[in-house]
Write a structure and sequence with these properties.
The complex is a heterotrimer of chains A (about 70), B (about 130) and C (about 900). Chain A is an all-alpha fold and about 70 residues long. Helix content of chain A is about 75%, strand content about 0%. Chain A has one domain. In chain B, α4 (about 90-95) links the parallel β4 (about 80-85) and β5. Classes of the chains: A mainly alpha (about 70), B alpha/beta (about 130), C mainly alpha (about 900). Chains in contact: A-C, B-C.
Chain lengths: ~70, ~130, ~900
């Protein structure tokens, strides 16, 4: 686990934290009034899934031939 | 005591001069060369009975000269006294290992040197 | 057979299956084929975070307050993304030091403090017991839900009795698979494999039941959404339904994140049981995915429940049962049972290890009368303590479940214990990243945190249960409004848990910071701090230290705790590392003591290990002073290397510089050796001539007068040569040390050159050298030390004379101006200097310079002295080709400024 992975992990965690908390949440909740009541849970789960995918891609071990 | 032939190899003219004087006074026939190239040439000639050899010669060092000397069958039994102005123990070992009979550090006692030269010529092996 | 019987038997069969799986995994591990050495198994074992609360409580909460259940999972999700940072460090530290639990970890960080280890253990016991109770209650409640209301009433207490049976079986499981060996850092493959299996079961069960409920009962997400809107339940999807403020949302997320890090069961599976650090790579995304998947159907199931007019914690069971889908009801029941049992097993094993290693053993070891370190039955004792602790924890959990007042919701109790457990997080996290954090700070923080936890959470709970005066909550103690436990200092409008989290953790952190900054840590603590904070930067270094204690004593001691087999293996290993067998009569050194302590720490924890080893080498371990020295040295080295690591390019540059400097130093050293040898040679050569001729003169009084005269002249010449050499050596050393005395004045370089030529005239004539001159300047005023410049010129002229060929020697001397400088050029037709040696000749006694000329009859220092003198007057000297065919030595000197301006 190199420094690059540590930086990427920190970045993912930071962005996810922003998306999970105020003020993002307040904005989403406000939008939900216009776009449909399911927006808040959809937002939370979508961010969650996106972050998982991002982290899965970013934490791949560099394969042969790729730059380390 | 019959006269013996002694070859002096040193590049310091004054030291050569003093050695020549001492050896002649001791009754020996003396011949001297003052650089490595001349010394190498001399190896082609008839071997003397004893060589007084300076370690630090220009062109070739005394150790190398000694090695080449010992490589020649006719020079194998020539007695060799190494003279040096650098008194390191390792060099002494090196010199003796190459087949020198004696290793003398400059400056030396002239009486002692004469005594050792005569003793060597009379068959004493000091090492 | 009726449903009850089936459920009961299913539970027993399920537990039997777990036993078999654990046994199988242990066997495989013993045979060297580890089932658990896979990142997916590691990730699944982390699923122990999801307990019966996830299975039942979350759904119940969602039915009432929508997404309010989520922060408890969002916090750990964020932490999981941080695995490659935070847990990487936790793992490296605990693997390096053989740590056995969260209490051991924290205690070891703060100087292997028994006080702190015990404190943390107590907090963990307080935080775990209600949680165990919650699990047992969930098992009981789920069984009763399977029975249906009437049956449950008829068989009153059946669920509870089953819960007791389950508790006993779980205790048995924990004892069998969690306390087999004394070495707590050895991995419990069976337990971990069973837990990972349970994580899979509960996920599969949740997904299956969720799919059944959403698609089987309602007809899909779209239909569910339509019905929710139609029933006017869409409010439940918004933030308002949670009853939270955004601060509460943040508070719960933070609480869950911290608890996830420090919960004993989480620390156990994530850190202690980890087999390969690299598994974190997979877990950092797979575990968030697991959490996402297991939470996916919480809200939908809750909504379906609300549409059916239901609520409460048993929706997962009740919805399938109401639809007469017994299979799915069973799945849900098994899933819940999985969640509950996994938590109980891991938590009790983890906390029991703490109790034995950080509470009971240190206490027993401190009682001198017991003489524990001299008794043979210690390994059995440690295991006995752990087993007893497991049983007691399980019974305590059962007791809390049975005795808790009926109006005290267990979920609330669970949250209260979460807050207690999270108080350990500041000491852990600051300890991991901040070197100044010290024991006093950690104890103060934990103490203040627990006090506020008691005041803001336990006191109100007691008041609500009628154990304290209720007026305390509304009016504060003694009617002091500011001190109301749930609105401390006027902090109002928050959820009680958030209120408690903010106050207790805030005060905890502040106390830790303030006390750490204002108090000094003892040396041991500072050393430990260094090792923990800078774990990336290599292992601990050990100063050579040799005490009086013998290897035999240490051997005997270790054998008592570890048994003879492991002790022998340990000493064999140490011997191999040293390349020689350790004999019983050998003295122990510091390294061996530390290794032994680490080995022992695996069994009994860091604090106890220190006490035990201290009993053998007491008073002999390196004292605080030497530790302090080590600390300073190490910290300097570490800071240095940290800086280097931050900029790897700078590192490379620095390394190259260091290498070059090193090479220069070595070269200088060699030069110094060479210098001394050469000076000795140069001194011996004239001395030899002098001695020889003096002895000749002594021994031959009959010498001819002419010969006597000649020999005396030689002696005089050699004495002079010796004198010159001594002068040159002295000059050079003065010049190089900057201690030369200069007589600086305004002089004429032409006059100096001419004087030098006159002085060297005898020598030149003696060698038959023909001299020509070319002085382009009538006057050449300059500021210099006349004698020294004269010395330079004489030196160069006599060199030229020395190297002149025996016949037909020529020398050409030239003086002219070159810009603002004067140039002096001395050419000869001697052998010359090959281009590659033209710099070397100015070095003192350079071999190259010696080999070049046929042993110059000088000191070998002359040119070096010349260069130094000229340098003093901003002049330069070099050697080039001569038009005469030999060497040309040139030097420049700046012209006098005033006169140059005038001219």
């Amino acid at each position: 686990m190199d420094e690059r992975l540590r930086h990427r992990a920190a970045a993912v965690a930071f962005l996810v934290t922003l998306a999970f908390l105020y003020p993002t949440l307040a904005v989403v909740d406000e939008l939900a009034r216009h776009l449909g009541p399911a927006l808040l849970p959809l937002h939370l789960f979508a961010v969650w899934l996106l972050a998982v995918v991002a982290m899965a891609l970013l934490s791949r071990r560099p394969g042969r031939g790729e730059e380390p | 005591m019959t006269a013996r032939r002694i070859l002096i190899v040193d590049d310091e003219p004054n030291i050569v001069l003093s050695l020549e004087f001492l050896m002649k006074k001791a009754g020996h026939v003396v011949e001297s060369v003052t650089d490595g190239a001349a010394a190498l040439d001399r190896l082609g000639g008839p071997p003397p009975d004893l060589v007084i050899l300076d370690v630090m010669l220009p062109g070739i060092d005394g150790f190398e000269l000694l090695r080449r000397m010992r490589a020649r069958p006719e020079w194998r039994d020539v007695r060799v006294i190494l003279l040096t102005a650098r008194g390191r123990a390792s060099e002494r070992e090196h010199g003796l290992a190459l087949g020198a009979d004696l290793y003398v550090t400059k400056p030396f006692s002239t009486r002692e040197l004469i005594r050792r030269v005569n003793a060597l010529l009379d068959g004493e092996r000091t090492r | 057979m009726n449903l009850t019987g089936i459920a009961f038997l299913t539970a027993l069969a399920y537990l039997a299956l777990l036993f078999l799986l654990a046994l199988y995994a242990d066997r495989r591990a013993a045979a060297g084929r580890r089932l658990v050495a896979h990142p997916v198994v590691y990730t699944l074992s982390l699923g122990v975070y999801c307990t019966a609360w996830t299975f039942y409580g979350s759904v119940g909460l969602a039915a009432e307050r929508g997404v309010a259940f989520l922060p408890i999972y969002l916090g750990p999700t964020v932490v999981a993304f941080l695995f490659p940072l935070l847990h990487l460090k936790l793992l490296r530290v605990s693997k390096a030091y053989g740590l056995t639990s969260i209490a051991d970890f924290v205690a070891a960080r703060y100087g292997k403090s028994g006080l702190l280890g015990g404190f943390v253990t107590l907090v963990m016991v307080a935080g775990t017991t209600p949680y165990v109770a919650l699990q047992l209650k969930a098992v009981a409640a789920s069984l009763e839900a399977m029975l249906g209301d009437e049956m449950a009433r008829a068989l009153h207490g059946f669920g509870a009795d089953t819960a007791l049976l389950v508790a006993i079986l779980l205790a048995l499981f924990a004892i069998l698979f969690g306390t087999r060996r004394i070495d707590a850092t050895e991995h419990h493959e069976g337990m971990v494999f069973a837990v990972a299996f349970e994580s899979l079961v509960k996920l599969a069960a949740f997904l299956a039941v969720g799919l059944f409920v959403v698609y089987g009962l309602v007809g899909g997400f779209g239909e569910l959404h339509r019905r929710v809107v139609a029933a006017g339940l869409e409010e439940l999807l918004g933030f308002a339904a949670t009853g939270f403020t955004y601060t509460d949302w943040f508070g719960y997320t933070l609480l869950a994140a911290l608890a996830f890090i420090v919960l004993p069961r989480m620390f156990q599976v994530a850190v202690i049981e980890n087999l390969e650090i690299d598994h974190l790579r997979t877990a950092s995304w797979l575990f968030p995915l697991y959490l996402l998947a297991i939470n996916l159907f919480v809200l939908p199931v809750a909504l379906v429940g609300r549409l059916a007019g239901r609520g409460g914690d048993m929706l997962m069971l009740e919805l399938p049962l109401a639809a007469d889908a017994r299979f799915f009801a069973f799945l849900a029941f098994i899933g819940g049972l999985s969640a509950a049992t996994a938590m109980v097993i891991v938590a009790t094993v983890a906390v029991a290890t703490m109790i034995s290693n950080d509470l009971v053993m240190p206490a027993l070891l401190r009682i001198p009368r017991l003489g524990l370190e001299r008794r043979p039955e210690v390994p059995g004792l440690v295991l006995g303590i752990r087993r007893t602790a497991i049983v007691l924890l399980m019974l305590a959990g059962y007791g809390v479940f049975r005795l808790a007042p009926p109006d005290l919701p267990l979920v609330r109790l669970g949250l209260v214990s979460f807050v207690a457990v999270s108080q350990v997080a500041p000491a852990l996290l600051f300890g991991l990243y901040w070197r100044r954090a010290n024991l006093a700070g950690a104890v103060a923080g934990l103490g203040v945190g627990m006090l506020l936890w008691t005041y803001t959470l336990v006191v109100p709970m007691a008041a609500e249960a009628g154990l304290l005066d209720r007026s305390l909550l509304e009016g504060g103690p003694f009617g002091w409004d500011l001190l109301r436990p749930q609105a401390l200092f006027g902090l109002e409008g928050l959820d009680p848990v958030t209120h408690a989290v903010l106050w207790s953790l805030g005060a905890n952190v502040v106390a830790l910071l303030v006390i750490s900054l204002t108090t000094e840590a003892d040396p041991l603590q500072r050393v430990q701090a260094l090792f923990f904070v800078d774990v990336h930067y290599g292992a601990r270094s050990v100063r050579p230290w040799r005490g009086e204690a013998r290897v035999a004593a240490l051997q005997e001691l270790l054998a008592r705790f570890l048994g003879p087999g492991r002790t022998a293996a340990f000493f064999r290993r140490e011997g191999r590392r040293r390349g020689r067998e350790l004999l019983p009569s050998d003295r122990v050194d510091a390294e061996l003591v530390q290794s032994a302590e680490r080995e022992l720490a695996r069994a009994v924890g860091a604090t106890s290990a220190r006490l035990v080893v201290g009993s053998v080498v007491r008073g002999e371990v390196p004292g605080p002073e030497s530790l302090l020295e080590l600390l300073d040295e190490t910290s300097q080295a570490i800071e240095y290397s940290q800086r280097l690591e931050q900029k790897s390019r700078e590192l490379e540059r620095l390394a190259a510089e260091l290498r070059a400097a090193n090479a220069r130093l070595r070269q200088l050293d060699a030069l110094k050796d060479e210098f001394i040898a050469t000076v000795s040679h140069e001194l011996r050569t004239p001395l030899t001539s002098i001695r020889s001729f003096v002895e000749i003169l002594r021994d031959h009084p009959d010498l001819a007068p002419a010969e006597r005269q000649r020999f005396l002249a030689i002696v005089a010449e050699e004495v002079e040569r010796l004198g010159r050499l001594v002068d040159d050596v002295l000059d050079l050393s003065r010049l190089e040390a900057g201690r030369m005395e200069w007589e600086v004045g305004l002089h004429d370089l032409r006059e100096i050159v001419e004087t030098a030529l006159v002085r060297a005239g005898g020598l030149l004539r003696g060698r038959g050298v023909e001299v020509t001159t070319d002085f382009a300047l009538a006057r050449a005023p300059l500021v210099c030390d006349r004698d020294r410049i004269l010395q330079v010129l004489f030196n160069l002229l006599s060199n030229a004379a020395k190297f002149a060929p025996p016949a037909g020697g020529r020398l050409h001397l030239e003086l002219r101006s070159l810009g603002a400088q004067y140039l002096v050029r001395i050419e000869d037709n001697g052998p010359g200097v090959p281009p590659e040696l033209r710099d070397a000749v100015f070095e003192k006694f350079r071999q190259g310079a010696r080999a070049l000329h046929d042993k110059p009859r000088g000191s070998g220092l002359g040119l070096a002295v010349c260069r130094e003198i000229l340098r003093r007057f901003d002049g330069r000297i070099w050697c080039e080709d001569s038009r005469l065919g030999g060497a040309a030595f040139c030097f420049t000197l700046p012209a006098a400024e005033t006169l140059r301006r005038a001219g």
